[in-house]
């Protein structure tokens, strides 16, 4: 059975959004694999279904391009906020979204009455090894700890933003073969739920260059939760201030780890086209 969709991206991280108030999808996993395919489908990093919630304004579920369901997706929260507002599903500009990682709060920011960006309260980072989860660290934080892949040793800092991230700081991003190391780290035995992998190069205390290998999606042009995890990791390693620009392959995000322990992410959200998936 077909359904209406809209295609969105946030800094090049692209999604098929489906309005679950009006459209029906029976098998999310299979549908995600089919629609995300860039040759035989619509082409996207993930499929997102927006539906009613009993505890927030809307509920959103996110499926990676391999069909796996993620707890959270930062770039999608910005797209969903703009989508529900512009399609008049709400009049609110401060929206509560129910996700598998809890309630996330995006706010649409206008400049002279015109959409400018979305700022999202991404909640508090989770730093306990057992909760991220990473095997072998109990409830301790995982800051600059060694991990071995093939015969190469990396130093990782792990953070959950509702979904798990492993951040590795490098001196020169150009020397990192993400296609080769990303998939090995994603399924490393230390990570029982697999992991999203970020390589980060510090440009200065307010600027981080980051590239990502996403769990269930591979290389994407941007990752919102990954950017938040990277900023938190940079602060924990005394590498940056608590607010910085994250320079990604698809654009920039501004991330702040505020004094209230919440992480805030600001960035773009853009509709590209809409149509009917047959
Ligand atoms: N691109 C996203 C994260 C999507 C989910 C991730 N691949 C996972 O499985 O955790 C973002 O912007 O945060």
TrEMBL record:
* Protein location: Cytoplasm
Q: What is its EC number?
A: 5.1.1.7
Is this entry keyworded Isomerase? yes
Molecular-function annotations in GO: diaminopimelate epimerase activity
The UniProt record gives the binding positions of substrate as 13, 64, 74-75, 163, 196, 214-215, 224-225
| UniProt enzyme class | isomerase
Gene Ontology biological-process entries: lysine biosynthetic process via diaminopimelate
Which reactions is this enzyme annotated as catalysing?
Answer: (2S,6S)-2,6-diaminopimelate = meso-2,6-diaminopimelate
InterPro entries noted in UniProt: DAP_epimerase_DapF
Q: Which GO terms describe its cellular component?
A: cytosol
Please name the NCBIfam families in this protein's record.
Answer: DapF
* Assigned protein family: Belongs to the diaminopimelate epimerase family.
Q: Under which name does UniProt file this protein?
A: Diaminopimelate epimerase
Which organism was this protein described from?
A: Selenobaculum gibii
Lineage start: Bacteria, Bacillati, Bacillota, Negativicutes, Selenomonadales
């Amino acid at each position: 059975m077909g359904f209406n969709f809209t295609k969105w991206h946030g800094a090049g991280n692209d999604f098929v959004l489906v309005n679950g108030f009006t459209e029906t999808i029976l098998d999310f996993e299979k549908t995600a694999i089919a629609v995300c395919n860039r040759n035989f489908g619509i082409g996207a990093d993930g499929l997102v279904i927006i539906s009613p919630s009993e505890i927030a304004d809307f509920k959103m579920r996110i499926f990676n391009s391999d069909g796996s369901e993620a707890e959270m997706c930062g770039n999608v929260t910005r797209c969903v906020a703009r989508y529900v507002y512009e399609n008049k599903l709400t009049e609110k500009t401060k929206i509560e979204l129910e996700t598998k990682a809890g309630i996330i709060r995006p706010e649409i920011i206008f400049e002279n009455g015109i959409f400018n960006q979305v700022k999202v309260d991404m909640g508090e980072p989770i730093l306990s090894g057992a909760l991220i989860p990473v095997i072998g660290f109990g409830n301790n934080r995982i800051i600059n700890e060694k991990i071995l892949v093939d015969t190469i040793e990396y130093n990782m800092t792990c953070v959950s933003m509702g979904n798990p991230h492993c951040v590795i700081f490098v001196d020169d991003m150009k020397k990192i073969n993400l296609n080769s190391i990303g998939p090995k780290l994603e399924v490393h035995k230390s990570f029982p739920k697999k992991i999203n992998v970020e390589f980060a190069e510090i440009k200065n205390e307010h600027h981080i260059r980051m590239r990502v290998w996403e769990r269930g999606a591979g290389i994407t042009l941007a990752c919102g939760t990954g950017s938040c995890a990277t900023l938190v990791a940079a602060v924990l390693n005394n590498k940056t201030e608590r607010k910085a620009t994250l320079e990604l392959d698809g654009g920039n995000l501004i991330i702040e780890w505020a004094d209230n322990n919440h992480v805030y992410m600001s960035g773009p959200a853009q509709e590209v086209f809409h149509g009917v998936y047959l």
